[in-house]
Amino acid sequence: MKPKSLVDIGNYGRDDVLRILKSAAKFKANPNRDYLQGKICATLFFEPSTRTRLSFETAVNRLRGRIIGFSDAATSSSSKGESLKDTIMMVSNYTDLIIMRHHLEGSARYASEISPVPIINAGDGANQHPTQTLLDLFTIYETQGKLDNLTITIVGDLKYGRAVHSLIQGLSHFQPTFNFVAPEELKIPDKYKQFCDKCDIRYREFSDFSPEAINSADILYMTRVQRERFTDLMEYEKVKNVYILHNDMLAASKPNLKVLHPLPRVKEISQDVDDNPKAYYFQQAKNGMFTRQAVICDLLGIEVE
Ligand code: CP
User: Fold this and answer.
1) Which CATH class is domain 9-128+288-299?
2) Atom 6 of ligand 1 has which residue's CA nearest to it?
3) CATH code linked to domain 130-285
4) What pLDDT, in 10s, does the model give residues 161-213?
5) Residue 71, ligand 1, Cβ within 6 A
6) Prior bond to 264 cis, omega within 30?
7) What residues act catalytically?
8) Which of these, 212, 179, 183, 208, lies nearest to 196 by C-alpha position?
């Protein structure tokens, strides 16, 4: 039988999301446990990362598991031409679970179809970043006390941002209203609008970073323009600093508003926002560790007490 993997947040229903969030809360209360004693996990990062890789590795370490892997594909035999299939088959010989980030959309699904151990998608191209979504949902619940019926304003690169694509799907179980703020070049792809239509999710599109988009929001989700996805760098130059959030722009925002960002940020959130109590992106990144502990245990069938 194929092991359970986390490839696509679209495969997680409302109950699955709530189960992970409940476990993540237990890990937040007590992150140091011995649930992974005797287990070895691999982190295969074919693309750069700070938060995702280090929070996964910290998650495993705090559960007393062991980690192997690479953070730079140039140091692996893929640089000699070894296929993804052979890499996965080799690493699954050595480990109980594989956490993989890869530039190709669909790579995590492919890996999950051939791997005898669970695969966690830590980002596949511009497609999906499901554990980012689970930590986002954990953070939204933590700050709003609920997930249902919230207005989420998502700003920036809605075309290439995989965290955005996963978040739309992850929130679809909770009757959100979306404000999509993007320049023409980085608009939300039609397939996500069709998905919203199919799920009866209300959304509006803005090309200006308008006060209405900020002041109607419970969550302001800022994103970076994904330079690495552009084939024409002149196009990137045109849009790279299109929206910048400054502290004074939050003056008339809702009292419960929280500003989130999957990070890394470049210039889209000015540093003067960092001291505003509505800024919550560093706490959000910390929640990644607890959420990833919950995901790992869920996939390995470990009950969290
Ligand atoms: N949010 C996120 O995926 O960050 P990293 O690219 O640093 O892992």
Assistant:
1) alpha beta
2) 49
3) 3.40.50.1370
4) 999 999 999 999 999 999 999 999 999 999 999 999 999 999 999 999 999 99
5) no
6) yes
7) 51-52, 80, 101, 129
8) 179
